[in-house]
């Protein structure tokens, strides 16, 4: 989901406040994605890293560390680590999904090839672990390595669950924690750990990132069915056409009668989609209040994120993080 919106943009205010540290992160990223022996590595990684993303995940690490009073150098290493993990997963995802476009540009696997994308992704994962180790914190290494494993686990789970009508909300949540929330929560948690915060504060940072990431993904899934194509960059109903069981569909399937379930089995499990099926799917979601219930879930997770912040020190960054949670759900209010 993009964060562009005509309303005030808390991530831009956060970026302005952390501009010097983000510049240091970007310099470290460029330094560590270099390769003396394989020039294709910086070519492929730069194509994605320099593509104009919001750098939200590394910004969360810097924000958490600053809010918790950290003054050392290693939050920059951790922010670069988070961005490398994120970039590596995107390179791998585009191969798995056979994607041709990301952030409005051709994907690396399209411009080069699948082998290059996978291997450069592996290189960035390796670089991320080198950066983690340099902090000298086993706790940080534990958090970020667990996040990397959770991301991979979530992607594999999605392969089996995406088109299986037995997929329920609990499985969906595991997938979302893997594909989105795991890196958000790790990004905020390590900021508190490197600052030496107590367990209550570190847990609150984890909860904030986890809830923010879940809300972020639910909003993305909801906007697939009721968003504006110009702002989302996706056609309405793309997830349905690609037979992805996201939360609105899961909620509709859970309340389906026998005839409706047969419709979902034909269109999602078997992939037999016909003209008018998207309209029928939207009608069934409306009948069972699936979209409004999904909206309520997204708003609920945003509230969970904001509540977690009450356990953290008073700081202007805390207010920006609260605004960020509201901003993520602004387009569905």
From TrEMBL:
CDD domains: Trans_IPPS_HT. InterPro entries: Isoprenoid_synthase_dom_sf, Polyprenyl_synt, Polyprenyl_synt_CS. This is Octaprenyl-diphosphate synthase. It comes from the Bacteria. Belongs to the FPP/GGPP synthase family. Its cofactor is Mg(2+). Keywords: Magnesium, Metal-binding, Transferase. Gene3D superfamilies: Farnesyl Diphosphate Synthase (1.10.600.10). The keyword rRNA processing does not apply. It holds the Pfam family polyprenyl_synt.
């Amino acid at each position: 989901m993009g964060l562009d919106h005509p309303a005030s943009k808390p991530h831009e205010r956060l970026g302005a406040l952390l501009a010097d540290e983000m510049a240091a992160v970007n310099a470290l990223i460029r330094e560590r994605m270099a390769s003396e022996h394989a020039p294709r590595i910086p070519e492929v990684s730069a194509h994605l890293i320099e593509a104009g993303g919001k750098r939200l995940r590394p910004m969360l690490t810097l924000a958490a560390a600053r809010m918790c009073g950290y003054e050392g150098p290693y939050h920059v290493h951790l922010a670069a680590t988070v961005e490398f993990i994120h970039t590596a997963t995107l390179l791998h995802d585009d191969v798995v999904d056979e994607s041709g476009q990301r952030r409005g540009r051709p994907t690396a696997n399209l411009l080069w090839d699948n082998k290059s994308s996978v291997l450069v992704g592996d290189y960035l994962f390796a670089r991320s672990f080198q950066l983690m180790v340099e902090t000298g914190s086993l706790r940080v290494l534990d958090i970020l390595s667990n996040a990397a494993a959770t991301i991979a686990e979530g992607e594999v789970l999605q392969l089996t669950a995406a088109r299986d009508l037995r997929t329920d909300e609990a499985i969906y949540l595991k997938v979302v924690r893997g594909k989105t929330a795991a890196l958000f929560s790790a990004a905020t948690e390590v900021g508190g750990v490197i600052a030496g915060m107590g367990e209550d504060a570190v847990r609150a940072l984890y909860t904030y990132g986890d809830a923010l990431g879940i809300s972020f993904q639910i909003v993305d899934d909801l906007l697939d069915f009721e968003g504006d194509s110009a702002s989302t960059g996706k056609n309405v109903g793309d997830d349905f056409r690609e037979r992805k069981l996201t939360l609105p569909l899961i909620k509709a399937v859970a309340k389906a009668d026998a005839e409706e379930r047969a419709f979902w089995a034909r269109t999602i499990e078997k992939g037999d989609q016909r003209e008018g099926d998207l309209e029928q799917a939207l009608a069934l979601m409306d009948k069972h209040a699936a979209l409004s219930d999904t909206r309520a879930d997204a708003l609920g997770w945003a509230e969970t994120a904001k509540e977690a912040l009450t356990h953290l020190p008073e700081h202007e960054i805390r207010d920006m993080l609260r605004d960020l949670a509201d901003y993520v759900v602004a387009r569905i209010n």
